[in-house]
Amino acid sequence: MLLENIALGKTMEIYVDRDGYRYRLVSKVEKTGVKKICLTAIMAGGRAFKFRPEDKIRLVYRSEDQMWEWLNVKAGLAMLDDEPVHYFEIVNKGQSFNRRQAYRVNIDADVEIGFYQVPGNRQRLSYVPLVKEEYEAFVDGNGVELEREEDDRSGKVFIEKRLRMVPMKEAEERKIRGFVHDISETGMGFYSNELLEIENSFYTRIPSDYGPLQVRCSIVRVDDHPKGNRRFRYYYGCIYEESDQKLIRYIYDVQRRQIQKQRDRREFEASVREIRRERNK
After folding, report:
1. Residue ranges of the PilZ domain (predicted)?
2. Domain co-membership, 113 together with 213
3. Quick one: average pLDDT of 32-38?
4. Which range, of 77-81, 132-136, 143-147, 217-221, averages the lowest pLDDT?
5. Same domain for 150 and 55?
6. How many CB atoms lie within 10 A of CB 6?
7. Does residue 267 form part of some domain?
8. From CA 43, how far away is CA 61, in angstroms rounded?
9. Contact present, 259 and 252 (Cβ < 8 Å)
């Protein structure tokens, strides 16, 4: 898959590994080239997301039923037609993969699902929502904000009205019971008696051999007639917005144990058949 063949306006997924966590970001294509692609600037709290040099970045693009990925991508912020964009420079040629091939393992674990909700709003959020707050800031002659008025040595301290993002006081944190059926590198499936909606997001901790692993998820599928568990009314399919990097290691550990268990079972059944053949001689 060539970058220049991707149509403008298409959606790209950006996976960022940072400080032991994996983050999933989404944006739209603004410009393409042979080795570079520009996406609509990814904003958080009114500011553009800042990629770090040490970030491990992966781009993912869906073309009909096929998925394409670019590994070890370099990112930065630039201007395109007087508008901010994030650009991504590729190092290696894109390769195809199928999201369904991501190995899923069953863990069947009770968990606590948490989310934030604004009164009167049905949307659930994995982070407490932020709002703008005006405050008085001490600044020096260059407009640099000071923590305290005494921190300035020039003797020129001014007070300015500024805005900052603070947690919304009205937001309520709620926690509900959930039951995680399976997990994969990209998402998980869980049951609950709470009615949630597509694009609702939440946080939870997945029990593992490495301790509880925190993930933040967005719901992409809802089934109100689940067949696998009669204790719950709803089944949800989710994708990770943020996940602990040890989660992938845990999935591989469970996968190895399950494969070994299957191998042991086959060997035991083969031994039983051999014993029966010997007895019937």
Report:
1. 171-252
2. yes
3. 92
4. 143-147
5. no
6. 17
7. no
8. 20
9. no
Looking at the structure of the chain, the number of domains it has is 3
* Number of neighbouring beta carbons within 10 Å of residue 244: 21
Q: What is the pTM of this model?
A: 0.77
Q: What is the DSSP string of the chain?
A: --GGGSPTT-EEEEEEEETTEEEEEEEEEEEE-SSEEEEEPPEETTEE----TT-EEEEEEEETTEEEEEEEEEEEEEEETTEEEEEEE--S--EEE-GGGS--EEEEEEEEEEEEE-TT----BSS--EEEEEEEEEE-TT--EESSGGG-SSS--EEEEEEEEEE-TT-EEEEEEEEEEEE-SSEEEEEESS---TT-EEEEEE--TTS-EEEEEEEEEEESS-SS-TT-SEEEEEEEEEEETHHHHHHHHHHHHHHHHHHHHHHHHHHHHHHHHHHH-
pLDDT tens digits for range 209-230:
999 999 999 999 999 877 777 7
Hunting for tokens 């008025």 — which residue is that? 149
Tokens, residue 167: 């947690």
Residue ranges making up the domain that contains 162: 130-167
